[in-house]
Amino acid sequence: MDATHLVRNDGPVDLPEQQPAPADPSRLRASDTDRDQAADHLREALAEGRLTPEEHAERIELVYSAKTYAELAPVLEDLPVAPTAGQAPTVQAGPNLPAPAHEAASIVAIFGGAERKGRWLVEPHTNVFTLFGGVELDFREAVLSQREVTVNITCIFGGVDIKVPPGVRVIDSGMAIFGGRSIAGGDPDDPNAPVIRLTGFTLFGGVDVKRRPPKGEQGDFRQRLREQRDDWRDQLRQQRDERRDQLRELREARRRARRER
């Protein structure tokens, strides 16, 4: 005979709560810190040559649009020592290229000078302030943290000299008041080329952007400069000789005209 279990209806009964199944870590929401760590990992991969600038720019956009760890993980899964959810990335510099130096995002030169050159990491936004001073920014060996970076320049009674390598587009969105802004031409036609955008203003100052090849190619560049210089000298010499001949013919024509009179 089956036993019958009766429940007396004489009050509330506390039943043990069912423990929920553990959540899948990959479905957890990613924090801003997680996204920043992933972006740092991508910057290191770019510095080591594991990613091209185009790949780096695409992945940076995916990182900052990711909402969960499941969306964040595929961006880093083909890179060595990829961080897991909530774990800071630990990446060693490659054997050929050192990791770029992390510099402050602000550069100030007041009655003095400042410079950034060599292998340094360019943050998405860099602020430059000069007051009776000068700043030199050399991007030839720099590593851009994303495809387009912005350099905001406030130059008052000073100067900012910028060197960029070939293949980088420079967009000047700043203004000059009793000053000047000289931007070198020769922007690449590739729409996916890295972009350095200049903003801010100059007051009784100047911003000068020049294109220079990487230091390893300086010898070839100087040779090309010498060849161009020789060509220009030949052209000037030829023009000078042509003007001399024209003047000689003009004098002879005047003499003939005088004799005929």
Q: Can you give keywords for this protein?
A:
six-stranded parallel sheet; 261 residues; 4 helices; disordered N terminus
Q: Please, could you describe this protein's structure?
A:
- The chain has 261 residues and is an alpha/beta fold.
- 31% of the residues lie in helices and 26% in strands.
- The chain has 4 helices and 14 strands.
- The chain has helices at residues 32-47, 53-65, 69-76, 218-260, and strands at residues 101-102, 106-110, 113-116, 120-122, 125-131, 134-138, 143-144, 148-156, 159-164, 169-172, 175-177, 180-183, 195-203, 206-211.
- The strands form 3 sheets. Strands 2, 5, 8, 10, 11 and 13 form a 6-stranded parallel sheet that branches. It has a 5-stranded parallel sheet with strand order 3-6-9-14-12, with no helix packed on it.
- Helix 1 packs antiparallel against helix 2.
- The chain is elongated and about 105 Å long.
- 23% of the residues are buried.
- The model is unreliable at 1-23 and 82-95 (pLDDT under 50).
